Amino acid sequence: MTAINERATAIRWIQDQIADYGLTLEELEAAGCFDPPPPPAPAPPPAVCYRNAEGLTWDGQGEMPSWLKRAVNAGQSVEFYRAG
Fold first, then answer.
1. Between vectors from CA 20 to CA 14 and to CA 22, what angle results, nearest 5°?
2. Do residues 47 and 37 lie in contact, with contact meaning Cβ atoms separated by under 8 Å?
3. Which of 20, 29, 38, 52 has the maximum number of C-beta atoms within 10 A of its C-beta?
4. Domain spans of the chain?
5. Which residues are CB-contacts of 23 (< 8 A; sequence separation ≥ 6)?
6. Entry pTM
7. Do the beta carbons of residue 60 and residue 66 sit within 8 Å?
């Protein structure tokens, strides 16, 4: 079934339900059927994967921050800063 046929079938079903239950446009509007959907919930902040003693953090995504690069270049293991 194509998207156009599915849409037409859905419209016919809605029309049948409206007729079967004697619904009016005003009743559907009052019930909020045409209200816009609520905005999506904000995304949670990224989990902290690495943290130093000063409280600087990195979630492990994107380029490594300068504080961690300096530590690694000085011979420290990245795993030393793993949070958790």
1. 95
2. no
3. 52
4. 1-35, 39-84
5. 17
6. 0.48
7. no
Identify residue 11 by its one-letter amino acid code.
I
Q: Quick check: 72 and 82 in contact, CB under 8 A?
A: no
Second-level CATH architecture of 39-84: Irregular (4.10)
Angstrom distances, CA of residue 53 to CA of 10, 63, 79: 59, 20, 14
How would residue 1 be classed by pLDDT, with cut points 50, 70 and 90? low
Residue labelled with tokens 């409206």:
18
The Cα angle at residue 84 between residues 61 and 66, in degrees rounded to 5? 40
pLDDT tens sequence across 6-59: 999 999 999 999 999 999 999 999 999 999 999 999 999 889 999 999 999 999
